[in-house]
Write a structure and sequence with these properties.
Helix content is 35%, strand content 23%. A three-stranded antiparallel β-sheet has the order 2-1-5, covered by helices on one side. By secondary structure, the protein is an alpha+beta fold. The N and C termini lie far apart (88 Å).
Length: 138
């Protein structure tokens, strides 16, 4: 009888312990990485920043109002390295022209080094922050 009561107390304590965590623990399943390599702008991140500096045409309404910030853009890099399906994820408040310029600049990017999976190029989605910073106040 004493062992039976101890067993009930032990089971109750176990239930309380699992109830506090929310669920029974599940075994950890390691996921296979999506890709062998990530898509890459030719020349790497420094080359991409130079591309932005050389190519961005700062919209005059935003420049006049001194509106700055980063526009988040999502796009796909094809298995050939072309940039397609450009979409603005998050723009700069009060700067709709910055979003339009971000789409233009991303669509005109050079061919990227595509993603590879099992040694073969594949299409992949990529998200990028396009910086808009006014160099000289006018």
């Amino acid at each position: 009888m004493k062992n039976y009561i101890l067993l009930i107390i032990f089971i109750s304590m176990l239930k309380i312990s699992f109830a506090q965590n929310g669920e029974l623990p599940l075994p950890f399943v390691q996921q296979e990485p999506k890709y062998d390599t990530a898509p890459c702008f030719p020349g790497g991140p420094h080359a991409m920043m130079k591309y932005f500096d050389d190519s961005i045409r700062y919209p005059e309404p935003e420049r006049t109002k001194f509106i700055q910030g980063n526009v988040m853009v999502k796009f796909s890099v094809t298995k050939e390295g072309s940039v397609i399906d450009v979409q603005v994820v998050n723009g700069v408040p009060g700067g709709p022209n910055l979003a339009r310029e971000s789409v233009r600049i991303i669509q005109s990017m050079p061919i990227w080094i595509p993603v590879s999976k099992n040694g073969k190029p594949v299409e992949a989605e990529y998200t990028l922050s396009v910086p808009f910073k006014i160099k000289n106040k006018r």
